[in-house]
Amino acid sequence: MPTPLDYDGTLKPRAQQLRREMTRQERHLWYDYLKSCPVQFRRQKQFGYYIVDFYCAALKLVVEIDGSQHYDPEERQRDEARTAYLNDLGLRVMRFSNYDVDRHFDSVCGAIDREVRGE
């Protein structure tokens, strides 16, 4: 019996599109930090009805980069439901804004690094 952590491929075309069309902030975090992180991260990983920005299976860690649309009250509720769903799967979720990636890149990487090292 498959679990939500099992890959079923239903959102594969959308995930591939999201990988091709990463935002500037997602590209920056991926190419300038996560791609060479000591633990392996994947881009655009499907969990149930959701596709997360970055996922590290070894740590069950999700990293999400949020644009301005995520601050709309309705979108915040969706994000809270999404995070609750992912937490119920045993995943930890870290969220950063586009602004944080643009203006505080070293701090974002430092926070992820501390999580990777278990601090």
List the helices and strands and how they pair.
Elements: H1 12-20, H2 24-32, E1 42-47, E2 50-56, E3 61-66, H3 73-88, E4 92-97, H4 98-103, H5 105-117
Parallel strand pairs: 3-4
Antiparallel strand pairs: 1-2, 2-3
Verbal overview:
With 119 residues, the protein is α+β, with helices and mostly antiparallel strands. The chain has a single domain (12-114), classed as Endonuclease, Chain A, CATH 3.40.960.10. 45% of the residues lie in helices and 21% in strands. It has helices spanning 12-20, 24-32, 73-88, 98-103, 105-117, and strands spanning 42-47, 50-56, 61-66, 92-97. Strands 1-2-3-4 form a four-stranded mixed β-sheet, sandwiched between helices. The longest helix has 16 residues, at 73-88. It is globular.
Key features?
Endonuclease, Chain A; 21% strand; 5 helices; 119 residues
The ordered H/E elements are: HHEEEHEHH
Number of strands: 4
The CATH architecture comes to 3-Layer(aba) Sandwich
The secondary structure category is alpha+beta
Task: Kindly provide the name of the CATH class.
Answer: Alpha Beta
The largest pleated sheet is described as: 4 strands, mixed
The third-level CATH topology is Endonuclease, Chain A
Distance between the termini: 35 Å
Number of domains: 1
In helices, the fraction of residues equals: 40-55%
Mean pLDDT: 85
Unreliable sequence segments:
none
Number of helices: 5
Strand residue percentage: 15-25%
The gyration radius over C-alpha positions equals: 14 Å
